[in-house]
Amino acid sequence: MKALLRLVMCLGFFLVLPAQAQLRSIPENALRADMELVSSRVVKLDGDSYALSVGAQIYNTNNMLVLTQALDSGLRYAVRVQISEQREVTKVWMLTEAEAAAKAPLLNPKKWFWPF
Questions:
Q1: pLDDT per residue over 78-96, tens digit each?
Q2: How far is CA 18 from CA 15, 21, 23, 38, 110, in A?
């Protein structure tokens, strides 16, 4: 009976391992920037201030949601972001070193400037 129980527990353990090793997918249109937390509702992306949208989601390097209160306000984070048409940050992915080294479109604040 004990041997059967051990076998079932071992099989259960090996079935759970693939679920833990899931990869995250960051959308291609997410822009690369350096983020610094200004307040719980405002972040600086490459030196320019942006408001966080009401339903903004921040994912850490383990792809887990993070609250802004858990972030250090003095640190700069390598991130990829999605920004709405209202110039609000909707999603943020904190990058690992490998993800930060990968090629990605850069945040260009001049893109948001209307010359009229």
A1: 999 999 999 999 999 999 9
A2: 7, 5, 10, 38, 43
